[in-house]
Design goal:
The chain has helices at residues 20-33, 48-57, 71-80, 100-107, 125-129, 139-148, 176-179, 196-203, 207-224, 241-249, 264-268, 281-289, 307-321, and strands spanning 13-17, 38-43, 63-65, 91-94, 115-118, 155-158, 169-172, 186-192, 230-233, 253-254, 270-277, 294-301, 325-330. With 332 residues, the chain is an alpha/beta fold. Helix 1 runs parallel beside helix 2 and helix 9 runs parallel beside helix 10 (241-249). It is globular. It starts with 12 loop residues before the first strand and ends with a strand.
Length: 332
């Protein structure tokens, strides 16, 4: 497909997604590109209910598929994706460039020579776009692309822009169109939680040090905003009792959501006026959806530098370039 027709609204399109933010990016793509003829396939996961809530809110019909975790099923999808197809579906949006499952399933549902475009799933795209991370397509995927006459890992419809990288064609997916869908009545300060165990392990940070930093940050927020509601939104996979204690001791609401945090205004009537977090992808997403909101990224520099910390720095630098304020914390 020619580049000038890559995002034509009349091209019959398939979306294959599996996470809540992929669902948000899908809705945004449909609205921004005004796609008229589309099919959305949702691969079942433990976050399916959040995916469903996003799509239902915008009246996006979808087909649910349960892939399963058995290796033999994955091998079947690999084989089936090789078969030549002549469908009317000529364009495929894949929710995450790292997911072979989404790609295999997508190619099973589109015609040969279809255009493959990738959406975002968190901030993993940033190190790819800026060259910090190298992602290699394996031999099987290269063979698959050649056999089905498709180009992989080239076209991205992304919320992350401003990169100069000839390897990729990056177009802007403006998710602020979703932020306009709100009748919020409660202006609040949000603190976006992280998976504390995984975060500390990846940066080699002592958990007690992390909790101490978190409590200091929360106390500063409360001190500077005595008349504002502060809401802590825990990470979906974090169940730390210590975080709950910190919130209770500092009169902070601990609120676990049944929708993606990006949809908090639409579903919970909460409009974020300030947002804090530890380099979470939600910080950037909320800044894009609510440009008037002040967003603060807390970057902890550990005693021991790791490769993963380099990714955090890369992401943090990009956040700063896009209007997100940085709070540096150095561990002695």
């Amino acid at each position: 497909m020619c580049l000038d027709k890559l995002y034509d609204k009349n091209v019959p399109t398939v979306f294959v997604i599996g996470s809540p933010f992929q669902a948000i990016c899908t809705v945004s793509a449909i609205l921004n590109l005004q796609i008229l003829d589309y099919k959305v396939i949702v691969i079942f996961s433990d976050r399916y209910l959040q995916v469903k809530s996003v799509l239902n809110r915008y009246n996006i019909p979808f087909i649910l598929k349960k892939v399963g975790k058995y290796r033999w099923r994955m091998r079947l999808y690999m084989v089936f994706s090789l078969f030549h197809r002549k469908y009317r579906w000529k364009r495929l949006f894949v929710g995450d460039y790292r997911s072979k499952t989404l790609l295999y399933f997508g190619l099973m549902n589109v015609s040969d020579s279809s255009t493959v475009i990738y959406l975002d799933d968190g901030n993993a795209s940033i190190p790819l776009f800026d060259g910090t991370e190298k992602y290699r397509i394996d031999k099987y995927l290269n063979y698959l692309a050649l056999r089905r006459n498709v180009i992989l890992l080239k076209h991205f419809f992304s919320i992350y822009t401003g990169f100069v990288n000839e390897a990729f064609d990056i177009r802007f997916n403006d998710i602020s169109v979703l932020g306009n869908d709100t009748n919020s009545i409660n202006k609040s300060i949000l603190f976006i939680g992280t998976n504390s165990k995984l975060y500390c392990e990846s940066l080699i940070i002592d958990r007690n040090n992390f909790y101490s930093i978190l409590e200091d940050q929360i106390k500063n927020i409360k001190r500077n905003n005595p008349d504002k509601d502060v809401i802590y939104i825990p990470h979906g996979k974090d169940s730390s009792e210590e975080v709950l204690r910190i919130c209770n001791d500092n009169s902070v609401q601990y609120k676990r959501l049944d929708v993606p945090v990006e949809m908090v205004a639409q579903s919970n009537k909460i409009e974020p006026i300030e947002v804090y977090g530890f380099t979470s992808s939600a910080l950037f997403n909320l800044k894009k959806m609510y440009p008037q909101c002040e967003v603060y990224n807390i970057l902890i520099t550990p005693k021991v530098m790791t490769n993963l910390f380099g990714d955090y720095v890369s992401i943090s630098d990009y956040y700063t370039q896009n209007g997100i304020l940085k709070i540096d914390v150095f561990l002695n």
